[in-house]
Amino acid sequence: MSPTAETPANLTPVEARILGVLIEKEKTTPDAYPLTLNSLTAGCNQKTAREPVLSISESDIQASLEDLRTRILVFETYGASGRVLRYAQNFAKVFGLPPASVALLATLMLRGPQTVSELRANSERLYRFDDASSVEAYLDELAERAAGALTVKLPKQPGAREHRWQHLLCGAPNRPEEQAEQAKHDASAAAGSTNAALAARVSRLEQQVEQLQATVAALAARDPRHPD
Questions:
Q1: Rounded to an integer, what distance in angstroms lies between the CA atom of residue 228 and that of residue 102?
Q2: How far apart are CA 184 and CA 126, in angstroms?
Q3: b (16+ CB within 10 A) / e for 55-66
Q4: How many angstroms separate the CA atoms of 185 and 72, rounded?
Q5: Which of 27, 42, 114, 158 has the highest count of CB atoms within 10 angstroms of its CB?
Q6: Model pTM greater than 0.70?
Q7: Binning pLDDT at 50, 70 and 90, where does residue 194 land?
């Protein structure tokens, strides 16, 4: 099913990064927009204003673009030159969202979970919010959206003063208990791997000791007056 104003996108992380870059570059570098595949790849893999920093191949981006295009979230164009294929996003129209909401979602897609204060600062080039309360109002609106929530307020991290917000375009975040269980599983797996390696090392040492003992016994049994 193609995403509509009533249906969440269920994007992959690569698709979310592509849409975030297209939304960003439309505002920040309008002369270069729509983007070529090369420019889009550079935007997805840039090392600033991105969390996490990724290294996505052009072929992977091309495959994700094809999927986004079938869902009308991206469309192809040759632009004014008519020579090089370029890509543009259709995110706001597909989801029926105002510019402020699009800016917040793009910033979340590009930089990961953030506090209201961080979102206001990081989205300034895409949309200028009057104050932090207006940012939170739009986030609440996206979280309570009747057609399906697109943001969620995360539990406070230990020692944190503010809640962080996360987009839901790639699905719901792991619950704390799931994260704890996964961490426990990873720790158990690491411990098991360490124990297995230690057991193998001990086994090799035991074999070496046995061989040395056999050699010593053989030498002791030999008559030193009658060497071979």
A1: 89
A2: 40
A3: ebeeeebeebbe
A4: 40
A5: 114
A6: yes
A7: low
User: Of the residues 151, 167, 183, which one is the last residue of a structural domain?
Assistant: 167
DSSP-derived letter for residue 146 is T
**What letter does residue 191 receive in the DSSP assignment?**
H
SS3 167: strand
Instruction: Looking at the structure, tell me whether residues 115 and 85 fall in a common domain.
Output: yes
**Polymer length in residues for the chain:** 228
Looking at the fold, whether 162 and 205 belong to one and the same domain comes out as no
**Higher pLDDT, residue 212 or 72:** 72
| CA-closest candidate to residue 143, choices 108, 179, 180, 94 | 108
pLDDT digits (tens, 9 = 90+) for 26-54: 999 999 999 999 999 999 999 999 999 99
Cis peptide, bond prior to residue 34, ω within 30 of zero: yes
pLDDT of residue 210: 78
Q: How many domains does the chain have?
A: 2
The band of 173, judged by pLDDT with boundaries at 50, 70 and 90, is confident
Q: Amino acid identity, residue 81? A: S
> pLDDT (tens digit, 9 = 90+) per residue, 147-170?
999 999 999 999 999 999 999 999
Structure tokens at 94: 């597909």
Give the residue ranges of DSSP H helices in 71-221. Answer: 91-95, 99-111, 116-122, 132-143, 176-221
The range of the structural domain enclosing residue 74 comes to: 13-167
Whether 35 and 142 share a structural domain: yes
